[in-house]
Amino acid sequence: MTAVERGRVAPTTTTAEEPDGHGGDDGSDGHGGDDRSDSEDGSDGSGNVDHDCDAPTERRALRPFDTERWVGITGVALALVGGGIVLRLPGMVVVGAAAVGYGLYAHLGEAGEAELVIDREVSDRTPNPGDAVTVTVRARNVGDAPCFDLRLVDGVPPGLEVVDGPARVATALRSGASVTFSYVVRASRGDHEWGTTRAVVRNAAGSREQLTELETPTRLTCTPELAAGGELPLRGLTTVSHGRVPTDVGGSGVEFYATREYRRGDPLKRVDWNRRARTGELATLELREERSATVVLLVDAREPAYVAARPDADTAVEASVEAAGAVFTALLAGGDRVGIAAMSPHDCWLPPGAGTDHAVRARETLATDPALAPTPSEDRFYRTLWRRRFRRRLPGNAQVLFFTPLVDDATVDTARRLDAYGHLVTVLSPDPTASTSGTSPGTPGRRLAAVERRDRVRTLRGAGIRVVEWSDRSFAAAVASASGRWSR
Amino acid sequence: MSAGEAGRSRADGNPGSRADGDRERDTRPPTLAVVVSLVAALAGTVAALVAAPTGGAVVGASLVLLAGGSLLGSARVLSWGATTGIAGIALAAGVGGGAEPLLVAGVALAVAWDVADHGLSLGRHVGREGRTRRNVTVHAGTSLLVGTIAGAVVYGTYVVAAGGQPIAALALLCFGGVILASAFR
Amino acid sequence: MRPLAVVGITAVAVGFLFVVDRQLASTLDLSWVVVTLIGVLGVLQGVRYASARRDRERRSTDLGEPERRERAVVPGADFDATVARAASVRRSRRRTARDDVRSRVRAAAVRAVARERACSRERAVDLLDEGTWTDDRTAAAFLSRSIGYPIGDRIRGSLPGRSTFRIGVSAAVAAVERTTTGIGSGRRAGEEEAIVDDRRNGAADGTEADR
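Predict the joint structure of the above. Result:
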């Protein structure tokens, strides 16, 4: 919570946690004390202090409904009274009449909207992946009516997992009172935004219930460091295929390789004139073209790519992004120009470049670009439109490293088309079908998906496109063994 | 989070230590709700026993059902527990139990059922690990208050009208009750 | 306020009055029979209202599980869902689901057989129809239009909770899997990479690579 946001908390909140004997039970006094000091600081420091009605929490109440808890109570009362009259038992009549009281109670009161102001505080707004971040939520009743029965569930972002404590609390709030609860979340890559906090309010008897949706924007951004990819043996991946006629290009990027005997037809530029001057022989220089490559890392981030071997494991998109980060570092260190793109409903394009600024931009793109979000987007993906746009942007001599789990034929089609357009394509595929347990082979669907994927890999290889597969965390090992196999 | 939960040191941030998937929320009713419900049911059983032993036994059976309903998370079992309790009270009244202990038993049973059912709903919405103490306390208190007031009013009327009640009064009360019930059903 | 409620409240109020003040009550003379009848009416209505509880479903807000990270899809989950739909009660749904399942397994089998036997797709389709592509009779029966399931499968399939269709699906998928795995995937990858490099070099030399 920035100072400005804290300042929006009205100064009257200092009276929120009155020691009335209830506070101690919940331990909320401890938190309440902290918040009191927080809000006091805020109201002193900042000039613009809004009142309760201008609080930043957006509210949306749904229709109240009957929970039908107390159905039958009046019937019970009636039966008891009637029975007591018929059998002349005063005891029964008395109990029945008391039950009427409960019947009336059940019809008293309405659930009411939860007129709350939510303040959410995150212990670290820019954590590292895997860090435990404490989220503290404070809800204040700014309405005139008390909430007899209030249950709150915080809108934890879908990409984050709560590791300690439910993000929920149940309490009863007078007008002006507040409740604080906190929970711990494990940070993971991405730009996470908190969704709606849901407040369920019931009347005192619990016979009526109403849901109110509250929104307080809070953001947590986790930008992992690009994996140190220095050890990745990537020369095999990006060297231009040999056999190309060496161009007569001089200057940087071209290095002396060897001399050989002069043959008729060798360009005069290539003749070693120094030797001719010394010994009178004609010899030709052989130069190895060490021009830096232009590489684009393309990450498949369409909805079908968000698959994993287990429902709670990291998705293939996470694996792809992590691998892409390592490859990016390695290629940049090797002097190549590297860019990033995503196959996604959202547009993501970082043109190939070099330098530390470029590395910083790449790190941000891989961490927080909406196209590479940790959870799939709901927008539609238009393959042809995307392909056309990508093809327009792709530099003519660029190679493409395509990170995709190969879960459908569209990726095979894309890879082959890019290859046909003249770009050297290498597919790096995290394997989501690798069986986690050795004993059970899996359901028919899993096995069929594995078969289909293997077939796609074979199709790509048969078309002359290299495929590197890996599963779980063995990306570096897979690249190493693949580079070893590939001839130069 | 309650003080007890703050003492837990799960927030140590090592990602590989446990599988994230097996952290299912505990949706059982909060302990306080179950305890309050059972204490109230016990009080009801004792009061019913004082009124008439047979009725008291049946109310004791309802205690078992209420406990079972809380454990199993079934509102249906709780309803059956309440019904058994009412039958027990009716039985106790039938064999000639006094009005006072029966009234106490009735209110205690109502509180017991109400808090147990409330606990079930809290378990589903918040869970056993969330903080719910204040909510349960307020709810139990309100329920007890309503029962006490209703009981006091009724008992007061009963004491005032000791002896043979006028037939017309009874008839009108009952008739009015039927009408009211159908109006507010 | 509703008229019924007004009547009820009036009656109850007057009743209370009569309880408190006996003199007033004696003005109204009712026989016990009438009172008993009213009492019985009360009991009957009461029991009726109370038993309405049995049919009423409780309603409450479903708050979901925001604490959990969004669950990832497991590959093949849609296929398993379709297989589950193939056991549906509705006939049309059952039939379309079965067709979908069969066509998908068939497509995978055709590709696998064509690759394995190095033959054309048409030949692979023929092999599937003949059932000679695999040793497993159940798998062959699942993908062939002419072959029937062996007796053992039919008996197992008729047991409650099982179906020949599911047995066929499992067997067919397993058979396709066996067809594709072949000797050993590790060596295969090496062989495939060699093919890739040959093609790359061939293309670079200017010869037409048959991609």
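Residues 244-289 of chain A form one domain.
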